[in-house]
# Entry
Amino acid sequence: MSYDSNNIFAKILRGEAPCVPVYEDATTLAFMDLMPQAEGHVLVLPREAAATLPELSDAAARDCIAVVTRLATAIQAATQADGVFVGQFNGAAAGQTVPHVHFHIVPRHAGRGLREHGAVRAETADLQAVAQRIKARLAV
Ligand code: 5GP
# Structure
């Protein structure tokens, strides 16, 4: 898949569109999903321009998954979840709607369903509040 540098995550990575960040370093950015399937739904992206995981360099994939692992632990603790889902879609046929590779981290509570994928926009203040809780756990 060729890379579309006008996709919304490319714009966020360039600072041309807003996000509510939870973590960033030289290779990776993580921010709150605008339409969370559960409170605490975070997206983790490599800065490298790649549409799908198979197109991503091994080095960027390693950096990204290390951040996913740390964040999954912090998110589960911050939301007092019973478990945590980590997911990743490659190509529209697989359910990918934004063509820049990313991992979803979604906290799960036993017996509680998920909101629909990419359906209902959250309030920025609510995203900021849960981002603060996640960042506090990352700092521990
Ligand atoms: P995909 O379907 O590509 O795996 O997931 C894309 C995700 O990005 C969806 O969960 C959707 O809610 C989220 N999303 C779409 N547009 C934006 C945006 O502008 N900002 C943020 N933070 N998330 C977005």
Notes: The mean pLDDT is 97. The pocket of guanosine-5'-monophosphate is lined by residues 8, 19, 31-35, 43, 89, 95-98, 117-118 (CB under 6 Å).
